[in-house]
Amino acid sequence: MRFSKRTLRFCLAVVALQTAPAQSPDWQHLRRLHPGEAVRIELMSGGTIEGRFESWLSESVSIVMRNGPAQSVNARDVRLLSVRVTHSRLKAVAIGSGIGFGAGFALGAASAGHLTDMNNPRFGARAQAGSEVGLVGAGIGALIGTLGGGSRYRTVYRARQVPAGR
């Protein structure tokens, strides 16, 4: 099988793109942040700073520490800057329980013959079996929604190079 130079270059480029680390957003993405947003900064030295975003400049970022003054961190010292994104845990529970009930109801109604030990169960028996299994599914879905809801951190800036010591 013969490959042309163009095909070989394309294959090498695809392999290089898949093995290369993902390009991270640059420092200019900090302009999207609003004063007062909860942020977490991971430093090149390995430490972590948490506080509320105050402002940024081309060479530094200022955050207000809990019960303290604003602290300015040099851009060269920042390895990762993340902003806290909150989600409604109650909404996640409601969605999870709805999906769980729907899946459980379908499973219960479909397997009503086995659950009631009848060859061809009536509609009422199918509805009852579907509801019972649906309630179990709703409980499982609510539990998964509880674990999945809440707040998370979204990366806004990641340093392109990590020092050789890490």
CATH architecture of the largest domain: Roll
Q: Work out the helix count.
A: 4
Describe the global form: elongated
Q: Which percent range describes the beta-strand content?
A: 25-35%
The Cα radius of gyration reads 26 Å
Structural class by sheet pairing and helices: alpha+beta
- Average of pLDDT: 80
Task: Write down the domain tally.
Answer: 2
Helix content: 40-55%
Question: How is this structure best described in words?
Answer:
The chain has 166 residues and is an alpha+beta fold. It folds into 2 domains: 22-87 and 151-158, SH3 type barrels, CATH 2.30.30; 89-148, no CATH class. 41% of the residues lie in helices and 25% in strands. It has 4 helices and 6 strands. Helix 2 runs antiparallel to helix 4 (123-148). The longest helix has 26 residues, at 123-148.
